Amino acid sequence: MSRRRKITGGVLVGASAFSAIAIIAIIVVILVVVIIGSKDKITWEFLTAFPENGMTEGGIFPAIYGTALMVIIMSVAAVPFGTITAIYLTEYASEKSVIAQTIRFAVRTLATVPAIIFGLFGLGFFIKFIGGEMDSIFLGGELRWAQPNILWASLTMSLLTLPVVIISVEEAIRTVPRELREASLALGATKWQTIKKIVIPGSISGIMTGMILAVSRGAGEVAPILFTGAAYYLATLPTSLSDQFMNLGYHIYIMSTQSADVDGTMSIQYATTLVLLMLTFLLNFIAVIIRARIRRRVKA
Amino acid sequence: MKDTKIVTEALSLYYGEKMALNSVSVEIPENQVTAFIGPSGCGKSTFLRTLNRMNDLIPNVKTSGKVLIDGLDIYDKKVDVVNLRKKIGMVFQKSNPFAKSIFENVAYGPKINGINNKKDLEEIVVTSLQRAAIWNEVKDRLNHSALGLSGGQQQRLCIARTLAVNPEIILMDEPASALDPISTAKIEELIFELKKNFTIVIVTHNMQQAARVSDLTAFFYLGELIEFGKTKKIFTTPDKKQTEDYITGRFG
Predict the structure, then answer these.
(1) 3-class secondary structure, B116
(2) Looking at the complex, does the CB of residue B134 fall below 8 Å from at least one CB of chain A?
(3) DSSP labels for A172-202?
């Protein structure tokens, strides 16, 4: 009996150690392969120049710029909207109310919807419906908003990242001690004054974490922007919300499937991948640090 | 005898199905210190929180009976709770300064009341800190975080913050229970000073403290007011056996 137990125990230890090592190995392999593949391609010029010669040479600046611009517009939409939702859920809705439970269920469900579905939703809702209506009302039917652009792509992406924002802001708001709210109310502050002056400043790092997680998620996703605004190649940077844009993730996809010379541009593909990876790692790393600081504050 | 400031009439309170206060009727005089004593869970803190309607924040609380302050029923539908709380300050068991500077903590209440003039604010902050007997300890670091103060200093800062709103009544929920003897003594001295200008209601389970600081004492047990009277009488010749058992340490 005890021998059997020993064997079972040993197998379990071995299996869990193997899984843990496998996960580390996967990350290391990805990084090593990508770094070797990019062959010193990452230079200042690569980061700041336009693609040249049918995207077989040159840099990836428009893709970096487009990605950055998209996540900024996305954050401007998702962070306030998500924060307000989180405030409603934690401060106004009672825990058991049907509305609050419905919203919570919707947020959890939204988090599990496949990214490509968001893309299709963006195409149908933002481009065909909203854009179409805008064109027919304001431009007399002239085609301007009823086509893919950076605004619709960013808004579509903001829907995808909304659950992340709501959940992290909610978590942060809950760490603001009840004693502080009571102190504020006991001084004759209204509920809204208390939220504005005590609750939101007290959860600002959570709001920041939510934003960074949303940005790192949004920077890496491609499916939601496939039909809503990402372009294969553009000779100029987007200057208006109704312009299309280039994007790092999408750039990797087309360079490895549809470019003029897939095999010859391997190092560009690897280098672009490395840039995207570093960008998302960096953002996640910052979010982790901010989170750790909140936890420490809560314990103190 | 001083004028009556607070009257409760048959005040009962339920948390869901559980009764926390059972028909409490009491008259609290102006400019005196009234202490509520009793074992943990006897309802004394709950009672205190009915006086500024802090229990409104807790779901499923049901209150019946009346609380009259200056003759007005504060549970009347027409009463503005926000204005009510400006009149009734509260100091909590655990000191709870905001994560702001010492100055901003005290200026919080006046700012909420629309005072934005820098000179006026400064004056209020300085006098409030002086009245709370903490001015000398913090005058050189008003812009430092309040969280850097010791526990006793934080509690006096919280009192200063309450005074800055210029309330008529100050409710204190075991204000010294987390403090060392020296800090406790300072708070008690302060309470003695403050009663000249404020009506003070204090909850404590430290009987010596009640005996030292209060003019009147009420003894609570299992949500009921057992006895209420002059502190001296309660602690020397109480009428009820339960009160005597409690103050002589036979239970609780």
Answers:
(1) coil
(2) no
(3) HHHTS-HHHHHHHHHTT--HHHHIIIIIHHH
Instruction: Please give the pLDDT value at position B251.
Output: 66
Residue A295 to residue A111: CA distance in whole angstroms: 24
Q: At what angle do helices B151-163 and B118-131 cross, to 10 degrees?
A: 130
pLDDT above 70 covers a percentage of chain A that reads 98
How far apart CA B118 and CA B127 sit, in angstroms, is 14
- CB of B58 within 8 Å of any CB in chain A? no
As a whole number of angstroms, the distance between CA B73 and CA A53 comes to 83
What are phi and psi for residue A235, nearest 5 degrees?
A: -80, -20
In this structure, the number of other CB atoms found within 10 A of the CB of residue B26 comes to 17
What's the pLDDT at A183?
Answer: 95
Amino acid at B115: I
Place domain A38-299 in its CATH homologous superfamily: MetI-like (1.10.3720.10)
Summarised one tens digit per residue, pLDDT across range A137-159 is 999 888 999 999 999 999 999 99
State the first-to-last Cα distance of chain B, in angstroms, to the nearest integer: 32
* pTM score above 0.90: no
Chain B residues close to A179, C-beta within 8 Å: 92, 94, 96
Cβ distance of B59 and A94 shorter than 8 Å: yes
pLDDT of residue B1: 57
Distance CA B37, CA B179 (A): 18
B86 burial type by CB count under 10 A (0-12 exposed, 13-18 middle, 19+ buried) = buried
Q: Is B84 left (phi over 0), alpha (psi -120 to 50) or beta?
A: alpha
- The string of pLDDT tens digits covering residues A269-300 is 999 999 999 988 888 888 888 878 877 765 55
Cβ neighbours of A252 (radius 10 Å): 20
Contact A177 B96 (CB under 8 A): yes
- What are the tokens at B88? 């009734």
Whether the predicted interface score ipTM is above 0.95: no
The answer to whether residues B32 and B215 touch, using CB atoms and an 8 Å cutoff, is yes
Q: Which of B107, B102, B6, B77 is nearest to B47 (CA)?
A: B6
Smallest Cβ distance to B96: which of A180, A189, A190? A180
Q: What is the helix, strand, coil percentage profile of chain A, to 5?
A: 75, 0, 25
Among residues B182, B169, B226, B209, the alpha carbon closest in space to that of B35 is found at B209
* Ordered strands of the B33-37 beta sheet: B88-91, B169-173, B199-203, B33-37, B216-221, B224-230
